[in-house]
């Protein structure tokens, strides 16, 4: 996900986790690797979507082939 746009980030999250579950993860799941922020909070704070995607993949053991 090099140079990923925010819309692409949301698409891959929803593709991997499903529409409703993906949206809830972004909003509700706290990621310690992102300073105790949710993915949505990290994005709002200026973190790169690629970095947030990697944190989600690590947290939820997304296989490398789907990262």
UniProtKB/TrEMBL annotation:
Pfam families: DUF3046. InterPro entries: DUF3046 (IPR021408). This is DUF3046 domain-containing protein. It comes from Rhodococcus rhodochrous J3.
